[in-house]
User: Fold these one by one.
Assistant:
Number 1:
Amino acid sequence: MTIMKNLTLGTAFAALGATSALAGGHACAEGRVSIVGNEFPAIQSVAAAALECAGDTAEANLTADHQKINVAGMTGNPAEYTTAIVANSSIVALINEDVIRSLDDLVAEHGADIPQQQLITVDGKVMAVAFMANAQHLVYREDVLEQIGADVPTSYEDVLAAAQQIREAGIMEHPVGGAYAAGWNLAQEFTNMYIGTGGEFFKPGTAEVSINNEKGVEALEMMKALSEYMNPDFLTHDSNATSAEWEAGNVALMNMWGSRTGVLMDDEGSAPEVYENTKVGGPLTVGDSGVPATTLWWDGWTVAKNISDEDAVATFKAMKAGSSPDILNDETMSQAVWLMEGFQPQEVNEGVLASVAAGSTPYPMVPFQGLLHTALGDNIADYLQGNESAEQTLADIEAAYTAAARENGFLQ
Amino acid sequence: MKHSTFFWFVFPSVLLMIAFIALPIVSVVTQSLYSKHEQVIIVVENCGPFGCTQSTTVDQAATEALRAEEPLGKWAGLDIYKDRNHLAVNEVASAWVNSDGLPDFGRTLMNLPFYSAMAFTLTYTAVVTPLTIMLGFFIAIAVNSVARRLRGPTIFFSLLPMIVTPLVGSLILFWMVDARGILGTGLQWLANDPSLSVKASTPLMWAMLMVYGVWHSAPFAFIVYYAGLQTVNTDTLEAAMIDGASRWERIRYVVIPHLVPLTTFIALIQLMDNFRVFEPIVSFAAAAHATSLSYAIFNDLGGETRLLSSAAATSVLTIIFVAILLSPVLVRTWRDFGTQK
C-alpha cells in the first residue's frame, strides 16, 4: 500500500529531526495513538515525529481520502483514530458530528507552551492545534514574462492580458493553468474567485445560500475567460495534473497551492529552463473589491472524543511532539509555512506569506460550507462548457445545495 | 428429496443471504426514509492563526437532546426521493407545465442531476451490453479455432482486460487518449484537427467510456462462450459438414442455438454490471461530462459533509431500476424453466 510506503519514507527522514528531542528514541507518551490525515510532505513529517514519540504500537493512516474515513473512524466507541489531522474545511464535519473533544484541559495541563496563534478556538473552546498555513497564489515563469515585457500580474485581469500577449507572441498556446477539475478543485477555484469579488456565500447568521447575484456571475465569467487560455482538458486537471503541465513547460501563469510550489521549484521532473524560472507571486485580485481572490488555510490536529482520558493525553503529547519546533530542520523547513517558533521563511513560502500579509480571507469554517462546496463542484462545469448561462448555473447550485441542506437539517 | 433434508441443505446459504443481502437492503431502505435532525445553529467567534471571525456552528448540546429522542433521525418518508437531487418531482412537474415544447422539456430534465445520470447510465447499458456479447462471441470463436498448443497463452491474453484492476485499466486508457498521448495524437491526425481533445468533448468522452466498458467486460463474455463451445456436439457439427454447411452456416445453425441460454446468462450479468458503471467515471475524471447513479452515491459519501440519506435513496433507486431492467430476462428464464419441466 502506498500509505505504508510513504510512511516508511517519512519515518526515515523524520527520525533525523525527531530523535534529538526524544533522548534516544524513548517513547514520550503512554497510551494508544492512531493518526488519520491527508498525505503531503509536511503532514508526513508531523506524523512521523508523532509516531516516534508514541512508540511502537502507534499507527498512522495518511491518505488523500482521509475525509472519507475520518468521521466513520472516530464515531465508534472507542474510536479507531485517536487524532485526525484536518484543515479549516474538514474540521467542520468532525465538529458537526461531535466526534472531537475540546482540548482546553489538555492544553492547560500539558500544552501551556503552545503559542496562542496555533490554537484554533470555536466559541472560546480550543478544538485543534494548527501547525502550518497554506494558500493558493500566483506561480509564474519569469523568462516568459520577460519575453513579452510584462510585469508580474497582481490581478486576474493582468493574467488575461499577459496570456493574450504570450499566445500572440507564439510562445505558448495555452499559457494559463489552474486546478479546474470538476468536483472539489473547481469548487475551490470558484470559492476563491467569489471571495475576491467581495461576495458573501450565505445570508448572515443563516444557512440560506445567496450566490445567485452579480458577484457570482462576475466570478463565473472570470473563470470562463481564464479557461479560454487553458489546455482544453482543463475540467480533468486536478492539482497534480496542473503541476505536471507546469513541469512539462506548457504553462506560464497559474494559481497554485503554496504547499505544492516546492515540487515545482526543485530540479526533479522538469527542465532547467522551467524550474529555474519558476517564481511565486502574491495572491491575485479580481475586479476592484480589493479582497484577494484566495483563501487562507491551516492544517492542524484534533483529539477524538470517544477515547479514554489516558489515550487522549498520550495522543495530545505525541501530536504536540510531532508539531513542536524540534521537527524543523533543513529538510522540513521548506515543506510548509510552519506556525511553530523557529520557522525561517524560504523562497517557496513567499506566496503563502504574501497571501497572509495581504489580509486574505480564511476558508469559511461554517457547518454547511461543505454542502455548498459539493454543489459548486457538481454544477460549474456546465457553465464553463457553454451548456447554459451563468445565472442558470448559479440557480442550479442554489437548488442542489438547498435540497442537501434540508436533508441535513440545516434548513427547514 | 425430503423437505427436511432440503431445508438443512439450503439453510446455511439462506442464512448468509439474509445476513449479507437482505438485511443491508432493509437498512438502506430505512436510512433513505429518515433525514437528519434539525440542527441548532448558533453564531460564535472562531479564532486561529489568521485572527478571529464571526461564524456559525452547530449547538451540540441542543442537537444532542433531539438525537436522543429519535436516534434514527427525523422521519422524512419519501421526501428525499422526491427532492431536486433525486426524482425532482416538483421540478419535473413545473417543467412539464412551463416548458416550450418537448426539446425544451428535455433540456430542463437533463439539467437535473438524477435524469442526466440516468441518461448516461441507460445509454451506456444499452450500447455496451450487446457489443460486449458480440465481441465476446467472436473472440471465443476465434480462440477456439487457434491451434491447440497456442490456446493457453491466447486465452490468457484475451482475459487480460478483465484481470487488470478497473481503475488501473481505465487510467492507462485515460493517459493514452490525452491530447499528448498516443491515441489522442492519433485521433488528431486521423481527424486532421490539432485542437481535438477527447477529454474536452462530451460525445467523445461518452464514446471513450463505452469503448472502455466493452474492452473491460468482453473477456467475461468470451470465457463463458468459450466454455460453452467446448460442449457443442461434435456429431452434429460433423453431420452439418457432411451436408455441405459452410463455416458460417455451422455457426449460425448449430453453434448459436446451442449458446443461446448462455447469452441470457451473460446479458443478465452485464445488464447489472453496466447499470452500475462507476470506476471509469472516476479514473477518466469524466464527472463534468457523464455521471451515473453509482457515481452520485460516491459523490454523496465523499464530500466534506456526508449525505447518508441521499446516498441511501439513490441506492434504493438503483436496485429498483436494475430489477426493472432485468425483468424481461428473468421472465424469459422463468418461462424456459417452465417448459423444460
Number 2:
Amino acid sequence: MAELWQLTLHEARAGLDAGSFSAVDLARACFERIGQVEDRVKAYVTLTEDHALQQAEAADRALAEGRGGPMTGIPVQVKDLICTNGIPTTCSSRMLENFVPVYDATVWARLSTQGAVLLGKGNMDEFAMGSSCENSAFYPTHNPWDLGRVPGGSSGGAAAAVAADEAIVALGSDTGGSIRQPASLCGVAGLKPTYGRVSRYGLIAFASSLDQIGPVGKDVTDCAIALNAIAGYDPRDSTSLDLPVTDFTAGLTGEIKGMRLGIPREYFVDGMEPGVREAVEDAIRELETLGASVEPVSLPTTEYALACYYIIAPSECSANLARYDGVKFGYSYQDTPDMWEAMETTRQQGFGPEVKRRIMLGAYALSAGYYDAYYLKAQQVRTLIRQDFARVFETVDALVTPTSPVVAFPLGDKTADPVQMYLIDVCTLPINIAGLPAMSVPCGFSEGLPVGMQLIGPHLSEERLLDIAYAYEQATEWHKARPGL
Amino acid sequence: MPLERADVEHIAALARIGLSEDEIVTFQEQLSNILDQFELLKQLDTSAVEPTGHAVELNSVMREDVPEESLSAEDTLLNAPRREGDLFRVKAVLEE
C-alpha cells in the first residue's frame, strides 16, 4: 500500500471518510516524510507539529461525530506571508523574523474552521519578490526533481513541498506568476484565481492590485477542493468580489468537446527552450484529440507586459512596505538616538537586496517629475493589456501557453542579473495585470525536469479552466510522476 | 536612462533605506538596466487611454459606520519593538 503521505487530497479524504486511517495518522505520516527529506528540500520556514497533532485530534473528533467537511483532517502547508494567529509569519524576511500575528488571514481562518491541519509555513522569496526562492533571507528551497536547481518562486516552498510529498496540499500567493511558475518547475498543479475571488485579508501585501492567494496541489481535483474551501466574498477585503461561488469540483466533467482554445503566438517567446515548446505543443495536440478546437490568436501588447508589471508592482510595493519602520512591529535598529537614522538602518538591515531594489524602483516611478512617464503610463498600458485579453475572449473560451519558457535552472544561475530573473515570468505576468484566472498543470518533461502548461481564461472562469485541466489530466499520466528523493 | 549616483541617493532617501557604498554602486547599475527596459513603453500611444488601477471594476467599498470589535491594546502592542505602558515608544521626533 502507498504511504499515507503520498496520497492526493481527494484520496486522503476518501480514506479519512472510510475510517481507513485517522487524521492523526495522516498528520504523523506527513511529519515522517518531512523528517526524511526536509533537510534537503528546505520547503518550510516553520514546522508546527504539536499544533498540527492537536488540530488532527480535533478533526478526528469532528469526523467521528459526523461533522466533517471536505478539508477536515487534511494536512496543509501555508505560505509564510499568510497570517496565522500565534504562529510566526516571516515573509522569509529578517524584517519579520520574530513577527507573530495576532489574527488569522481569512483563508487560514476558513481552512482551520473547516478542520484543516497546519503542517507549517512555506518558504518563499522575501516578501514574495522573486522567481526562484533564492531571495528567502533564511535559505533557498531546492527543487525535489534536482536538488541543485531552484523550485521557482516566489511560492517555491509550496510547490516543492507538494512535489516532495511533504504536504497534501499548499496555499501560495501569485502576484506575477508566484503560484504557477513554481508549480510548473516542480511538476505539480497550481491555480491563480480571478483577482477578488479569494480574500486578501491577512495576506501580507506586496502589490495590492495584483496579489491573489490560490492552491498548489498534486492534481486538478485537489486544486478544485482547496479553492472551494477558500473562495468567496469577504467584507474585510474591500476588493473582494461579492458574487456567488459554485462548487468547483462539480464542474470537473472531463468533457471539453467543442471548447475553443486560443494559442497566443506571443507566448512562444524567443529564448524558450525547445523541450518546453515540444511538451506544450504535444499537450495542445492532446487537447485537440479530446475534442477542443485550436486556433492561433494574437495578444499584441504582450511584449509590453514586463515593463508595465515592473512599474506597477514595485510602485505598490514601495507604498505597502513603507509600514516597516521599526516602530510598530518587525525588526528595529535601536543603536542610535536619531529617529531617521534608526528607520533607515532598520530598513537597510531588515530588507534583502531584491526588496530594496523594488522599493527604490517604485519610489522612483512615483516620485515628482516621473509619475506621468512611469506610473500613469504603466496604468494606461494596463488598460491596453486588459483590452487585448477581452478581445480574444470574444472568440475563444481559454488560452493555452507555456507557464515558463524554461525548466528549473541551477541555483545561483540568475541571481547576479535582476533583469534575467524578471524575464522568467514573461508568460505569467500579463495575467495578473489583467486580473484573470490561470492555472499551470504538468505536461511533460524536458531534460528530466517538469514542464508546465498554462491555461488562461476570462474573469471568473476558474470552473472552465479546472475542467480543461481535468480533461487533460484524465488523458495523461504526467501528474502521477513524483521525484525520487 | 542611466541613473546618476545622486539619483540613487535621492531615491534611497525618499524610501528611507540606508545604503552602503557598495549598495549605491550596485543599485545604480541595476536600476539603470531595469529603467532601460521601461523605454519600450514609449512606443505605445496612450494619449487617449484611460488608466487602470484595478483589473476588476469595483467602486469604493464602504461598510456601515458602526463600531465593531477590534484588536485589544495588548494584542496591538504584542509585536512592538519598544513599548511603554500601552504606548509605542519611539525616538524623539522633534528636535530641541
